[in-house]
Recover the amino acids of this structure.
C-alpha cells in the first residue's frame, strides 16, 4: 500500500511529460485544444449573459380603490386622458408613484376632492413610475405627486399648494371661474378691497360675443392662479362704458392694475396683448402684500428662511376653513396691517376696513342656515330646496323719448337666494342694481326689443335677466308681459340651483371629514375693535418695522414645537410670534388673539417693551443623569429652572452646556460624571447640565461652541468663569479649574475627602516638621524684635518701618503655627473614616476661622 502511494506522483509526472513532449512535437494539437476550450467557455458565458438575472417587474395594480371618483390609470397611459380632454373643458390629473410616501398620503385627500367636485370636473390619476408607460417615457418629474389642471386650449396649470382636499377643491373652483364680472362701483370697490393687487379689464360684449383680447385675459387670470394659489392676483371684468370711465379706461381691451398703497398702472399699449405678457407684467409690477401667506411645502425648503431673512417677521399661525371664501383670521390680520402701514392718504381705506369686517361677520353667521338645511351632511332631496321665485322682479318704465305713444318697459329679475333658507322664510326683496340705471337701460343707443341674461361671477344662484321692449301707452303692463315665465321651465337653471345647494352640503361634509373649524368656533372680536390711536401708520415712524406673514396652523403644526409655542396655544387657536433673526430673539403674544391685542403686541415691539421668549423643555426631575453603580447626580436644567438651580447663592455650581447633535458632548459626558464623583462629598457644590439646543439662555450665557463648562461661585454669581477653550477637557484640568475658583470651604472639603490613611500618616509627619520649622522662625523673629526694642530703649534710632515689618511677619508665623497645631490635633485624634464625615469637616473649618480671628487680636504688649 505504501509502495502504490509513492508510485502515484511518478505516474502523474509521466503523463504530464508525455503531453508536453507531444505538444512540443505537434503544435497543431495544442492549437486545436485551445480552440475547443475557448469555444466551450464562450458558449457557456453567452448562455449566462442571455439569461435575465433580474426578475421582471410586477404588473402595476390600481392605486385608487374601485368605485372612487378618480379615474386611475396604473399602466401610465396618456391617450385616454387626451381623449377625455376633448369632451371636457377642465381636467384634474395627479401624477403619482405607487412607492412614494407623499403619493400615498395625498391619495385620500385627492379622492375627497374628487368626491366634492364629482360630475363637475373629472379627476384622473396616472402612474408615472411604470417603466413601460407613456407617462414615464414623456415626463421627467423630480418628485411626486404632481397635480395639474388641464384646460382644452392651454397647457397644464400646476398646483403648488398644500396637498389637502379643501385646498385642492378651492384651487380647481378658482380655475373654473378665474374672472369676476363687475357691474357697479360698489362691486368694484368690494372686489378691490379683498386683495392688495387687482387686474381689471374692460371688454365690450355689445360689439362682439367674444371681444378682442378677452380670451388672452382669461388665460392670463388662470396663469396668475398657478403662480400663487394662496394669494393670487385677482382678475375682474367690466363691460359698461360708464364704469370704464370711472377707472380711466378709454378703449376696450384695456387693463388697469389697482394696488392698495401705490398708484394704479395701465397695461402698456405698446406691448402685445398676449396672456404671457399680461401675467408677466402683472407679477413684475405687483405690490408686496400687506400680509404674505407662506405655504410650507412639507419638505426641506427655504420658504420660511427667506421670509425671516428680510427682517423682523411677525408670524401668525391660525386655522383656515377653505370651505368658505372668506379667510377669517387672514382678514383680521390684514385689517391690522392696513392700519400699521397707513402712512399716507389711501383712498377708500375706511371702506376696505368696513368691508373686511362685514365679510367676517357674514362668515360667522353663514353656518347656521347651511346647518339647518344639511343637518345630516348628506345629499338632501330636491323638494327640500327652495327655488327662487321667478316672479321676483322689478319693472322699469322709461320716460317718453321720441315716440309719444310708446314707452320702453323692462323687467329686471334675478335669483335672490344667497343663503340656503327654507322657502317660507325667503322674502322677495329685490333691489335694482346700478348696472340697470335709467341711463344704462334706456339710453338712446339701446335698441329694443332685447334680453340680457347673465350669471354673476359664474354663479347660477345669482342668475339675473333683463328684458326690454316697446309698449304702446294704451296697453296694460301685463300685455307687455314680463318674460319671467319663460324661465320657469328652464331645466338647466333648475338643475344648476339643485347642484349649487348640493355642492354646499358636500362642502359641509368635507368640513366634517377634514375636522375643519366651524365658523362658530372662530374667535369673535367685534366687542374689542378699538386700536390705539398712535398705532396707525407706526410702520413708517420706526426702524423696527415688521413684515407680517400668515401660515395655516394645520399645515404648519411642526412650527409650534420648533418655535416652542406654549402648550395653551394649539392649532385650533391663532398663535403669534415675532422672530428677530438679527438679534436672535423671539417674542410671543400671550394674550387672547384679537385685532386689539395684535395691534398692542406690534406696538410694544416697536417700543422695545416686550420680554424675549426663551425656549424651554418641561422641567425635569432633580437628578437627570447618574453614574452607574454610584449615587452621583447631575442636575438637568431647563430655561425655566435655570435661575432657581444655577443662581443659588449658597452653592458653587458647575454647569455643562451641551447640544443633542454634538457628538463630542456624548463622549465628554462620562468625564463630567467622573468629575462629579470626585467632588461627591462636597455639600455646597452642584453639578448641572443643560441642552442649549432646546433651551434658550440669557444673552450673557449664550455660547457658540459645545460642550462648554461654566463655573458659578457661591455669593459671587456675577463672577462666573468659562473653562478655557485652549485647555484639554481632561479630568485633572477640570479639577484644577474648579479648585482654583472655588470657595475655601470647598477646598477644605475636597482635601479632607480625598485624603487616604497613607495620606493622613504622611501629613502627621509633615505637620510636625512644619511646626518645628515655624517655631524656629518665630523664635528668630522674636529675638530680633527684642533687640530692636532694647536698642530703642537706649535711645538709639531704628531703621524706618523695621519694627512694624517684624511685627507683621511675627503675626503671620503665629497664625500658621495656630492652624498647624489645630490640624495636628485633628490628624492625631481622628481616624480616616471619622475625618471624612461632613460634620467633623465643618467643625474643622470653624476652628480655622476662629483661630484666624483670635490671632488677629494679639497686641504688641502681650508678646
Amino acid at each position: 500500500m505504501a509502495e502504490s502511494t509513492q508510485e502515484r506522483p511518478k505516474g502523474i509526472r509521466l503523463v504530464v511529460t508525455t503531453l508536453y513532449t507531444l505538444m512540443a512535437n505537434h503544435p497543431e494539437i495544442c492549437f486545436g485544444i485551445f480552440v475547443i476550450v475557448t469555444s466551450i467557455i464562450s458558449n457557456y458565458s453567452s448562455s449566462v449573459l442571455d439569461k435575465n438575472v433580474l426578475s421582471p417587474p410586477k404588473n402595476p395594480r390600481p392605486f385608487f380603490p374601485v368605485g372612487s371618483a378618480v379615474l386611475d390609470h396604473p399602466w401610465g397611459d396618456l391617450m385616454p386622458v387626451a381623449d377625455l380632454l376633448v369632451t371636457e373643458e377642465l381636467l384634474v390629473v395627479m401624477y403619482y408613484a405607487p412607492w412614494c410616501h407623499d403619493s400615498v398620503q395625498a391619495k385620500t385627500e385627492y379622492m375627497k376632492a374628487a368626491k366634492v367636485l364629482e360630475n363637475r370636473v373629472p379627476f384622473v390619476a396616472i402612474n408615472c413610475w411604470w417603466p413601460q408607460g407613456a407617462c414615464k417615457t414623456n415626463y421627467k418629474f423630480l418628485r411626486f405627486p404632481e397635480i395639474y389642471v388641464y384646460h382644452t386650449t392651454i397647457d397644464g396649470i400646476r398646483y403648488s399648494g398644500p396637498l389637502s382636499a379643501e385646498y385642492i377643491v378651492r384651487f380647481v373652483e378658482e380655475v373654473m371661474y378665474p374672472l369676476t364680472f363687475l357691474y357697479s362701483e360698489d362691486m368694484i370697490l368690494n372686489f378691490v378691497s379683498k386683495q392688495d393687487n387687482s387686474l381689471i379689464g374692460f371688454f365690450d360684449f355689445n360689439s362682439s360675443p367674444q371681444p378682442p383680447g378677452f380670451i388672452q385675459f382669461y388665460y392670463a387670470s388662470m396663469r396668475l392662479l398657478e403662480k400663487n394659489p394662496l394669494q393670487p392676483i385677482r382678475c375682474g371684468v367690466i363691460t359698461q362704458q360708464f364704469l370704464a370711465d370711472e377707472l380711466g379706461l378709454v378703449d376696450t381691451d384695456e387693463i388697469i392694475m389697482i394696488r392698495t398703497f401705490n398708484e394704479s398702472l395701465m397695461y402698456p399699449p405698446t406691448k402685445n396683448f398676449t396672456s404671457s405678457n399680461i401675467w408677466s407684467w402683472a407679477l413684475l409690477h405687483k405690490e408686496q402684500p400687506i400680509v404674505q401667506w407662506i405655504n410650507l411645502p412639507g419638505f426641506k425648503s427655504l420658504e420660511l428662511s427667506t421670509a425671516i431673512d428680510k427682517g423682523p417677521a411677525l408670524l401668525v399661525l391660525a386655522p383656515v376653513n377653505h370651505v368658505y371664501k372668506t379667510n377669517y383670521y387672514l382678514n383680521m390680520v390684514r385689517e391690522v396691517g392696513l392700519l400699521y402701514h397707513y402712512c399716507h392718504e389711501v383712498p377708500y381705506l375706511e371702506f376696505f376696513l368696513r368691508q373686511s369686517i362685514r365679510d367676517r361677520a357674514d362668515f360667522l353667521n353663514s353656518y347656521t342656515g347651511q346647518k339647518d338645511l344639511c343637518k345630516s351632511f348628506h345629499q338632501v332631496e330636491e323638494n327640500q330646496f327652495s327655488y327662487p321665485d321667478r316672479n321676483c322682479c322689478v319693472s322699469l318704465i322709461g320716460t317718453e323719448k321720441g315716440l309719444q305713444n310708446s314707452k320702453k318697459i323692462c323687467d329686471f329679475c334675478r335669483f335672490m337666494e344667497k343663503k340656503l333658507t327654507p322657502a317660507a322664510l325667503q322674502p322677495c326683496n329685490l333691489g335694482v342694481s346700478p348696472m340697470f340705471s335709467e341711463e344704462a337701460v334706456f339710453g338712446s343707443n339701446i335698441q329694443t326689443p332685447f334680453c340680457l341674461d347673465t350669471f354673476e361671477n359664474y354663479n347660477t344662484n345669482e342668475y339675473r335677466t333683463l328684458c326690454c321692449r316697446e309698449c304702446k301707452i294704451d296697453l296694460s303692463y301685463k300685455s307687455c308681459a314680463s318674460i319671467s315665465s319663460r324661465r320657469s321651465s328652464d331645466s338647466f337653471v333648475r338643475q344648476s340651483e339643485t347642484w349649487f345647494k348640493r355642492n354646499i352640503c358636500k362642502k359641509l361634509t368635507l368640513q366634517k371629514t377634514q375636522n375643519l373649524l366651524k365658523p362658530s368656533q372662530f374667535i369673535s372680536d367685534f366687542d374689542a375693535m378699538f386700536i390705539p390711536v398712535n398705532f396707525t401708520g407706526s410702520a413708517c415712524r420706526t426702524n423696527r418695522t415688521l413684515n407680517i406673514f400668515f401660515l395655516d396652523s394645520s399645515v404648519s403644526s411642526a412650527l409650534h414645537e420648533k418655535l416652542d409655542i406654549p402648550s395653551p396655544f394649539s392649532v385650533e387657536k391663532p398663535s403669534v410670534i415675532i422672530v428677530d433673526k438679527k438679534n436672535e430673539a423671539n417674542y410671543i403674544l400671550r394674550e387672547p388673539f384679537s385685532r386689539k391685542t395684535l395691534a398692542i403686541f406690534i406696538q410694544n415691539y416697536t417700543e422695545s417693551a416686550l420680554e424675549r421668549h426663551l425656549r424651554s423643555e418641561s422641567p425635569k426631575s432633580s437628578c437627570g443623569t447618574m453614574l452607574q453603580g454610584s449615587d452621583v447626580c447631575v442636575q438637568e436644567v431647563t430655561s425655566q429652572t435655570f435661575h432657581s438651580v444655577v443662581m443659588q447663592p449658597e452653592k458653587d455650581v458647575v454647569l455643562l452646556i451641551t447640544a443633542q447633535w454634538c457628538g463630542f458632548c456624548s463622549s465628554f459626558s462620562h468625564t463630567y460624571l467622573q468629575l462629579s464623583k470626585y467632588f461627591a462629598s462636597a455639600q455646597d457644590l452642584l453639578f448641572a447640565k443643560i441642552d442649549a439646543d432646546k433651551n434658550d439662555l440669557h444673552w450673557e450665557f449664550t455660547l457658540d461652541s459645545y460642550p462648554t463648562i461654566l463655573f458659578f461661585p457661591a455669593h459671587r454669581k456675577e463672577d462666573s468663569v468659562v473653562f478655557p477653550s485652549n485647555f484639554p477637557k481632561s479630568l485633572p484640568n477640570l479639577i484644577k479649574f474648579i479648585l482654583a475658583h472655588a470657595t475655601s470651604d470647598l477646598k477644605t472639603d475636597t482635601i479632607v475627602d480625598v485624603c487616604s490613611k497613607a495620606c493622613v500618616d504622611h501629613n502627621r509627619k509633615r505637620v510636625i516638621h512644619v511646626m518645628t520649622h515655624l517655631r524656629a522662625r518665630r523664635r528668630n523673629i522674636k529675638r530680633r524684635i527684642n533687640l530692636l526694642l532694647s536698642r530703642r530703649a537706649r535711645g538709639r534710632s531704628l531703621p524706618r518701618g523695621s519694627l512694624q515689618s517684624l511685627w507683621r511677619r511675627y503675626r503671620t508665623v503665629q497664625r500658621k503655627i495656630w492652624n498647624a497645631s489645630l490640624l495636628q490635633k485633628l490628624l492625631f485624634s481622628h481616624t480616616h473614616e471619622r475625618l471624612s464625615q461632613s460634620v467633623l469637616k465643618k467643625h474643622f473649618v470653624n476652628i480655622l476661622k476662629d483661630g484666624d480671628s483670635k490671632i488677629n487680636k494679639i497686641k504688641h504688649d502681650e508678646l
The mean pLDDT is 78. DSSP finds 25 helices and 25 strands in the chain. The longest strand covers residues 459-472. The longest helix spans residues 757-793.
